[in-house]
C-alpha cells in the first residue's frame, strides 16, 4: 500500500501530523508513505523522519501554475492508494492539488466554515471538522478513514528527529558564547504574518521585560529564535548582555539549539510546536486562536491568555482574522496579557525543576 501525505501548509501544521504518521507506520510497517510539501522548512522538518519513504517538494509559491501542475501530475505515476490533506487545509488549491494527484482514495476535512467554496467535493472521503478538537486528533481522524481499527489513545508525542551533527554544532555554539553552564530560556516572539496573524504576537517590549525579570531572578540567559530579525533586535535593544540572537543556518540547527534550552516562551507559532516536540517545558502566549485545538501537545506547558467572550474568534478558513474591536482595544486579547502573568507562569515551571535553578 502506498499513501501520499499532502503537508502543504506551514511547519506547525505539518508537525502536528507526526503522531498520526508514527501510528500509521506502527499499524502497517510495510506501507510506503510519501509526503508532498511546498515549504523548504517543512521538507527540512521531515527529512530525517524514518517513517517517510520520499519527500516531494513543489515550489507552488515561486514557479508558474503550469510548472506546478506538471509537478503535481508527475505524482500520478506512483498510483497512490490514498492521499491525505493534512489538517488544516481549508483552501480550494489544496483540494485541487490532491485531485490532480489521482489517488484512489482522497481524504480531507469538511470544514465548519467556507467548506462549500473550497471545493471539498473533489475528495471522495470527507471527515467532519469538530470545534475544540486538537489538530493532532483531527489528523488522526483522517487516518482512521484508511485504518479504522486505530485508536486515539495510541497517539504519541510530536516527533522531531535531530541528527548528532546538529546536536554537536549546537553545543559548540554555546561553548563559543560561553553559555555551557548557564540556565537558558528560549523566546520566539514572532509568528506567521499571513491572514493578519502578526496580531497574535505579544509585544517585543514585554518579551524584553520578561527577559530582564528572568535574568534578575534566576541569572537566566535568553536566546531569541525565529526569522523575525526586526522583532528580535527590538528585544535585544531593550535588554542587556544576557540576551543573545544565535546565528543559525537552518531550521535543524535552530531546533538543535532549542533542544539545549531549559524553558521556552513563545506566541502560538510553529516554534511553539517544535518546543513541544523537543519536550522543553514551555509557556505559550495565546491571543485569538483556539488554544484547545493548538495547545502544546503532550508536553509540560502553561497557557497564558485572556478569557474574553469574543475569543477565540479565528477559525480555519482562507479569511484573515478580524477583531470586533477598534482603536486601542483592537486585539486586546494579546495586548492585555501582562508581563507579571507570563513571569508567574515561568516561575511555576522553573521551580518544578530544581536542578535548573541556581542556588
Low-confidence segments, given as residue ranges, are: 355-359
- If classified by CATH, what would the architecture of the largest domain be? 3-Layer(aba) Sandwich
Secondary-structure element sequence? EHHEHEHEHEEHHEHEHEHEHEHEHH
Described by the principal axes of the CA atoms, the overall outline is: globular
Biggest sheet descriptor: 6 strands, parallel
Return the structural class.
alpha/beta
Helical segment count: 14
Which percent range fits the helix content?
Answer: 25-40%
Number of strands: 12
Notes on the structure:
α3 links the parallel β2 and β3. This protein has 359 residues and is α/β, with parallel strands linked by helices. The relative contact order is 0.12. The protein is 35% helix and 15% strand. The chain has a 6-stranded parallel sheet. The chain has 2 domains: 153 residues, Glycogen Phosphorylase B (Rossmann fold, 3-Layer(aba) Sandwich); 192 residues, Glycogen Phosphorylase B (Rossmann fold), CATH 3.40.50.2000. It starts with a strand and ends in a 9-residue tail after the last helix. α2 runs parallel beside α6, α7 packs across α10 and α8 crosses α9.
Question: How do the strands and helices of this protein lay out in sequence?
Answer:
Layout: E1 2-7, H1 11-15, H2 18-27, E2 32-37, H3 40-46, E3 54-57, H4 65-74, E4 82-85, H5 92-101, E5 105-110, E6 125-128, H6 135-144, H7 164-177, E7 184-188, H8 204-218, E8 221-224, H9 229-237, E9 243-244, H10 251-258, E10 263-267, H11 270-277, E11 282-285, H12 291-294, E12 301-304, H13 332-335, H14 339-350
Parallel strand pairs: 1-2, 1-4, 2-3, 4-5, 5-6, 7-8, 7-10, 8-9, 10-11, 11-12
Helix pairs in contact: 2-6, 7-10, 8-9, 8-14
Amino acid at each position: 500500500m502506498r499513501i501520499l501525505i499532502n503537508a502543504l501548509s506551514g511547519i506547525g501544521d505539518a508537525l502536528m501530523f507526526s503522531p498520526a504518521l508514527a501510528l500509521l507506520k506502527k499499524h502497517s510497517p510495510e506501507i510506503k508513505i510519501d509526503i508532498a510539501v511546498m515549504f523548504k522548512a517543512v521538507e527540512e522538518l521531515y527529512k530525517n523522519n524514518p517513517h517517510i519513504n520520499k519527500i516531494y517538494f513543489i515550489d507552488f509559491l515561486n514557479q508558474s501554475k503550469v510548472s506546478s501542475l506538471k509537478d503535481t501530475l508527475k505524482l500520478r505515476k506512483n498510483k497512490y492508494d490514498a492521499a491525505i490533506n493534512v489538517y488544516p487545509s481549508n483552501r480550494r488549491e489544496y483540494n485541487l492539488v490532491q485531485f490532480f494527484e489521482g489517488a484512489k482514495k482522497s481524504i480531507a476535512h469538511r470544514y465548519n466554515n467556507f467548506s462549500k467554496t473550497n471545493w471539498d467535493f473533489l475528495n471522495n472521503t470527507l471527515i467532519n471538522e469538530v470545534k475544540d478538537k486538537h489538530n493532532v486528533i483531527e489528523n488522526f481522524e483522517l487516518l482512521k478513514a484508511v485504518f479504522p481499527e486505530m485508536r486515539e489513545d495510541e497517539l504519541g508525542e510530536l516527533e522531531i528527529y535531530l541528527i548528532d551533527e546538529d546536536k554537536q554544532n549546537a553545543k559548540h555554539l554555546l561553548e563559543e558564547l560561553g553559555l555551557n553552564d548557564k540556565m537558558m530560556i528560549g523566546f520566539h516572539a514572532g509568528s506567521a504574518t499571513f491572514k493578519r496573524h502578526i496580531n497574535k504576537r505579544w509585544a517585543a517590549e514585554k518579551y524584553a521585560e520578561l527577559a530582564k525579570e528572568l535574568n534578575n531572578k534566576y541569572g537566566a540567559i535568553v536566546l531569541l529564535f525565529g526569522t523575525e530579525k526586526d522583532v528580535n533586535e527590538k528585544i535585544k535593544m531593550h535588554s542587556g548582555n544576557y540576551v543573545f540572537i544565535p546565528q543559525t543556518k537552518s531550521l535543524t540547527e535552530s531546533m538543535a539549539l532549542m533542544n539545549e534550552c531549559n524553558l521556552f516562551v513563545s506566541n502560538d507559532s510553529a516554534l511553539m510546536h517544535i518546543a513541544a516536540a523537543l519536550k522543553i517545558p514551555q509557556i505559550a502566549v495565546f491571543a485569538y486562536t483556539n488554544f484547545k485545538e493548538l495547545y502544546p501537545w503532550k508536553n509540560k506547558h502553561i497557557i497564558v491568555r485572556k478569557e474574553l467572550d469574543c475569543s477565540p474568534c479565528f477559525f480555519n478558513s482562507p479569511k484573515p482574522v478580524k477583531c470586533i474591536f477598534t482603536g486601542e482595544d483592537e486585539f486586546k486579547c494579546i495586548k492585555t496579557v501582562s508581563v507579571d502573568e507570563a513571569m508567574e507562569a515561568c516561575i511555576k515551571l522553573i521551580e518544578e525543576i530544581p536542578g535548573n535553578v541556581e542556588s
